[in-house]
Amino acid sequence: MTGRLAGKKALILGVNRDNLGLALAERFVAEGASVAIAGRNPDNTQAIGKELGVPAFVCDLADVSSIDRMVEGAADALGGIDIGINSTGWGLLKPFLETTAEDVALMSVLQFNGPYRFFQDLVRVMPDGGSLIQISSVTATIMMDNHAAYMGTKAGMEHVMRTIANEFGPQGIRANSLAPGGIADAPMSGGGMNSAAMRALYQREIPLGRPGVKKDVVDAAVWLAGDEAAFVTGQVIHVSGGQTLRRNPSIGEIYGAFGA
């Protein structure tokens, strides 16, 4: 690797086996950053930390004190934080009128309240600036059936990142969102693209002609976290092969692909 993040100190939230968070952590380490990771699963989080040789923290986004301890612990372990990434996400596939108050409350805690607190804590430990990145989704921009709670909370956090960029730009803090489309080699809401029929369904909606892979998002994150993007803030960068120019497949098409 090129050492593009040498000297940077990064906290990556949402690391687990085979997911985007792990791909981010592995690449940031390879690019020379000092990295701390955080995840919800205690055993997996600690094991991954040992494998990567980085500090690891267990974090429950439903528990404010857990978020506070995680950010404080990472800042202490790394000697500060220059980069903070939230790569967490929970899918909820449910029709609008069948979505309960409890469903909405849970999605709000996991995808809005918790990330909101995470970035608040990061701003407080970045007196000299840094880069904050929210992993969003193309569904914050284009429709996907039966995903109102997911889409709404993701879209809300995109606006929060703009607010952070505006308010704390004078402090040297940059805040942006990365919005992937379907990722063929990472878990996704609705079961993923583990069949040829599902991949074909998404591929026809992507002008560049293929589903995304984790590396596409990680490459964008490395750029956004580093000095090459020093004048980029308050943006939503779609890493989707142009999918936002078209659409997501309908729920009927998705169910049909599962049955193919």
From TrEMBL:
Q: Which Pfam families match?
A: adh_short_C2
Record key words, sorted: Oxidoreductase
Q: Which CDD domains match?
A: SDR_c
State the InterPro entries in the record.
Answer: NAD(P)-bd_dom_sf, SDR_fam
* Domain of life (superkingdom): Bacteria
On whether Cytoplasm is a keyword of this UniProt record, the answer is no
Q: Molecular function terms in GO for this entry?
A: oxidoreductase activity
Instruction: List the PANTHER family.
Output: 5-KETO-D-GLUCONATE 5-REDUCTASE, SHORT-CHAIN TYPE DEHYDROGENASE_REDUCTASE-RELATED
Q: Into which family does the record put it? A: Belongs to the short-chain dehydrogenases/reductases (SDR) family.
Q: Under which name does UniProt file this protein?
A: Putative oxidoreductase
